[in-house]
Amino acid sequence: MPLSIAIVGAGFSGAVVARELAEAGHVVEVFESRDHVAGNCHTRRHETGVMVHVYGPHIFHTQHEEVWNYVQRFGEFQPYRHRVRAMVGDQAYQMPMNLGLINAFFGTQMNSSEAEAFVNSRADASITNPQSFEEQGLRLVGRELYDAFFAGYTRKQWGVDPQELPASILARLPLRFTADDSYFNHPYQGIPLHGYTPIVEAILDHPNVTVHLSTRCSRAQLATYDHAFWSGPIDAYFDFEHGRLAYRTLDFQPEVVDGDFQGCPVVNYCDAEVPYTRITEHKHFAPWESHDQSVVYREFSRLCGEADTPYYPVRLVEEKAQLLEYVHLARAESGVTFLGRLGTYRYLDMDVTIHEALQTARVVQEAIAQGRAIPAFVVDPLG
Ligand code: UDP
User: Fold this and answer.
1) What is the pTM of this model?
2) Which residue among 154, 186, 341, 351 has the greatest number of ligand 1 atoms within 8 angstroms of its CB, and so is best to mutate?
3) Does residue 340 register a pLDDT over 90?
4) Is ligand 1 within 6 A of the CB of residue 172?
5) Fewest CB within 10 angstroms: 74, 140, 152, 331, which?
């Protein structure tokens, strides 16, 4: 028997669950508070013709073949390798850390094994079990590289001392002793030919799915459906009963220039004195296109206020304790499943979001088929 399903949020989480349940025969309504789908992955053509990543750079990369095959169903992807430069002083380096960066920074001409031995000799071997971002950085590359490339950028990005941040944030970045300057290691990488928004629109394009843009859905309204999914902020669902979870938000200062601005998609500014964290030049995300002008975004990070768009969950110790309170409330609530970056308060990439949404849809469908209670979380937000 088909169920009536409400989904809050039309980013990848909400869209994928909507699609999966619609294909299983359920009737799905999606409520999105913004006037577009695709959440923070939203892309839009600028008047110059450049495809702009409205909420900052999004590069699709994954190790999950299932996820890669899934997104290919809904739009064409172009092969793309992300390359980033990092400014320290007035010198540009290859990022992530590789042989080129190490030799340029130390003024050496080492080969791979020499560079590895050299960086290991600089690394702080006394740190055996790194807990914080700073410990992880010092353990990995030592004081000089850490101070130059990680300390300033991270303080600007997160607004706190890197000693307070979890080591997992740094684990996102590769460290290589080869000349490879690709930003990601994953086997599947690409950018959608027409941007992310048409992909999410295609996922939602099913006769059993209705999308309501610029529409909020109250908790009381959600309770009128057989089941609901919430991919908005978990604290917002509970009307901030235990206070607001901390997020970082971003401000972009856009500029249009003739020709080319920086010759690559992203340049990080690692020095603490430079107020922005990075400059994105959007046309380089679509090297198959050609434009006379260029759109650049200077990116500034700050604490997310009540009226701002949340981007990065901060997840310091006190937020984790607060999150626990919300997790208890969620587990006591019946009829709602929480998912995604905002619903589980985790720093998730697009591919992980899709992977977890597919998993969520599968688990929920099994529960429906077996007449079991549908869980509040399929992926543990505290895990
Ligand atoms: N990071 C840094 N220096 C850099 C690039 C990254 O210190 O030049 C740190 C910073 O703390 C950042 C984290 O590594 O938040 C993850 O970087 P990533 O590029 O994955 O961030 P995202 O693109 O998700 O903002």
Assistant:
1) 0.97
2) 154
3) yes
4) yes
5) 331
